[in-house]
Structure formats: C-alpha cells, structure tokens
Amino acid sequence: MTLHLYFARRFLICFLSVLLIFFGILTLIDLIEQIRRFGAADIGFGRLLILTFLNVPESLYRILPLVMILATLWLFLSLARSSELVVTRASGRSALKSLVAPVIVALVLGVIAVAAINPIVAATQKQYDTQRARISGVASTLSVSAEGLWLRQGTRDGQTVIRADRANFDGTILFGVTFLGYDSHGQPTFRIEADRAELVTGAWSITSAKEWRFDSEAAIPEVDAFETDRMSLASNLTRAQILDSFGTPSTIPIWELPGFISRLEAAGFSARVHRTFFHMELALPILLVAMVLVGAGFTMRHTRFGRTGLMVLMALGLGFTLYFIRNFVAILGENGQIPVIMAAWGPPLAAVLLPLGLLLHLEDG
What is the pLDDT of residue 21? Predict the structure, then answer.
C-alpha cells in the first residue's frame, strides 16, 4: 500500500506540473490571438486578459489526454533513471501491479474532469462567447427551452428577437413564429406573428403573417395592424450561423446536456452532435487510462537498455494516433455513419486493450 501511495503521489505531481506548464503556454498563445483579433477595438489590455482566461480552460480541457501521456512518460522515465523501477521489479512486484496506482489516479482525475471541471469549462466558454459577441457588436444566438426556441439577429442598428414553437433540423424553417424588433436604444418597433418563416438569402420569407408597428403615430398598435399572406423581413443570418449558435455542446454543462438534447429534439433539431459529445465526455476517464497504459508500455524499462528517445517518440506517436482516431470516429458518429455509442466508446476501449496487450507481451513474453 505504501508503494502504491508513493507512485500515486509522484504521478499526481507530474500531472499537475505538466498541466501548469501547458496552462502558461496556452495563456501566452491565446493572449496573442486575442490581441490580434480585438486589438483594433480599443478595449484595453485588462479586458483582453479576461478574454484569455475565459478561453484557455476550454483549450486546456481538450488536451487532457496529451497532458496525461506526458505525465506518464515523465513519471516512468524518472523512476527508471533512479533505478526505482528496477528495485520494484526485484522485490517481486510485476509491471501491471506497479501500474495500479497511476491507473487509479488517471481514472479519478477523469471522473473529476467530467463531473466538476466540465461545467466550469462550459461556463467560462459561454461567457467568452458572450463577451466576444458584445465586442464585435454583431450577435446571433439561439437557445432552446420548454417554450420553444429563441433566436436573435441584429447589428449595431437594432435587434430582432425570434421565437418559434419548432423548426426543421437546421433552423432555416420556423413554425408558429413571432418576430419582435427593437431599435438601437432597446425600444420596440414592431411585432410579427406568422404560421411559417423560411430563411432565404438575406431575408426571412414569412407566410400567413400579421404585423403590429410600435413606432407609428397611432396610439393603439392594433389600429394600424395588417395581415398578409406573404411578406419578407431582412436578415443577416445564415444556416451556418444558426447551427453554430447552438451547435457547440462544449458550452453546455454535462449535467444539463441530457435535458438540452431532449428539448432540442422536441423543437425539431437533430441532436446527434450533442449526443455524441455527451457520450465522448462520459468515456473520457477510459481514454485517460489508455494514455497511461500507452506511456507505460514504452517507458517501463531501464535506461541502460538504450533507445529511450525512440521509445518516447513511439509512445507519443501512438498516443496522437489514438487521439486522432477518436476524433475521426466521433465525426462519423456526428454524421450518422456509425452508431453514437460505437463512435464514443469504441476508440477508448480499443485504446486500452492495445497497450495492455503490449504490456502483457513484455511482462510474460
């Protein structure tokens, strides 16, 4: 038990050290990117720094598998150089038993990342998107609730809030829709209720509509209200903008994602992307364990055997390959070419079995 605790403490220190190093590197890179993107907006260095700290957690969270494999390489290379692995093996402890503590630490860290860190990252990323939209002055966001879906379009001259009972899968056709227009000072200017609205190039094509004007001279808007079978309302939205408005599941906490998926499907949208992301997050602890096994499979050897640099490169190459395959299979799952469960859980499980087979081969021959 004492040896397990020693390995666990060493591995945790290595992981936190690598995480801190990457945090510093990503902060500098992201700060340069924020200066390049918003430098002309004259918002001040303090606000740019805030944007950086809001955006870095999401990037750091995405590279946790890389951090995990580097921490594993650091741990076992340091143990090999100090001959602690040799002493451990000489005492009769097998390689697999020596891996118990790092594997448990990786699994616990993965569970903490999904259960606690994921909601924090989602909150910071959502706040970053909001701040970025305010600085740019052009926002178009979509939210889905039990009452339907809400969409906002606009520029510096005014905003239009759109509410609909449901929509097609990409949000370009709305049913039971209401348009509320506001000027640049936040005062209401018009209201349109319609049975159907379709997004065409540069406008909404509205069918069976009734419009009320609030900026006319009439004291009662109902006096000047009129009905029409077809009308057009200018819009700067595109299909890609609508999909991007709700198509980033990383801004939704893992605990709220199942409910959001249900509301999304009830509103008529496809939730395959969000469902794939949800299962990939649940499989993250297994992926982190796989990265520990990959790193250990190439570095649990004495440095006197030589070719240490080659083994490190092979471990990193295999780790990057497994990470690439995971993301590639996830795209196939999002596109509906393979089942979501297979896309999310297949690569991590395969990533565990491959280095485990290598370790068994090296251990037992």
Answer: 95
Query: Burial, 110: exposed, middle or buried (Cβ in 10 Å; 0-12, 13-18, 19+)?
Result: buried
Task: Output the pLDDT for position 145.
Answer: 65
- The residues that bridge with 204 in the sheet, in sequence order, are 199, 233
Helix (H/G/I), strand (E/B), else coil: 26: helix
Predicted pLDDT at 93: 66
Q: Which helix (H) or strand (E) holds 229?
A: strand 226-234
Residue 162 tokens read as: 């759109």
Which among 306, 283, 308, 305 has a CA at the least distance from the CA of 295? 308
- Quickly tell me which residue has 């590197």 as its tokens: 25
115/256 Cα distance (integer angstroms): 11
- CA 279 to chain centroid, in Å, comes to 12
pLDDT of residue 87: 72
Instruction: Say if residues 104 and 30 touch (Cβ distance below 8 Å).
Output: no
Both structure tokens of 274: 């969000």
- The burial of 204, by beta-carbon neighbours within 10 Å (0-12 exposed, 13-18 middle, 19 or more buried), is given as buried
Mean pLDDT by 10 residues, the chain (365 residues): 82 94 94 82 80 91 93 86 70 72 93 93 85 65 68 74 80 85 82 88 87 74 79 80 67 85 74 88 93 84 64 85 89 87 90 82 61
Single-letter amino acid code for the residue at 251? T
What is the residue whose two structure tokens read 């340091």?
A: 78
Q: Are 228 and 207 in contact (CB under 8 A)?
A: no
Q: What angle do CA 154, 172, 224 make, to 5 degrees?
A: 60
Exposed (0-12), middle (13-18) or buried (19+): which is 93, by Cβ within 10 Å? middle
57 backbone dihedrals φ, ψ, rounded to 5°: -55, -35
| Cα–Cα distance measured from residue 90 to residue 197, given in angstroms and rounded to the nearest whole number | 75
Taking a C-beta distance cutoff of 8 angstroms, is the pair 189, 214 a contact?
yes
3 state SS of 27: helix
Task: Residue 355: name the closest of 277, 268, 274, 297 by CA.
Answer: 297
Give the tokens for residue 253: 């906490």
